[in-house]
Protein: 5-carboxymethyl-2-hydroxymuconate isomerase
Amino acid sequence: MPHIHVEYSNNIKNIDAKQVLKTLNHTLFATGHVSSALDIKSRAVCQQDWLIGLEPDETQAYVHIKLSLLSGRSLETQAEISEQLLQALQQVLPAQSGMTVQMCVEVLEMTKTTYSKQLVQA
Structure:
């Protein structure tokens, strides 16, 4: 906990998903609202099947970040984290010539009492 899910349309060029994840993890940890960097788990998925609007348009693209946090943080804190992740994404995503890219951050709360986690070491 927390979890970062990044989804992006497959028409985005030259995206380095691992670098995006690394940047987002560093940004989230730097907010001071995560006690250990090892608690952050992130993943990225390139979406092959997507549609923005009513008809296919290759000049439209998106990157959507879902950040799942345990409940208990104020709305102000959630908004601050959301804005910082959006700024980090804008810095790490290469410019997409001739395209409009919708960049979004969605913060989701997970209820502490129903979240389970176990560390398994071999």
Summary: The chain has a mean pLDDT of 96. The longest strand covers residues 60-70. The radius of gyration is 16 Å.
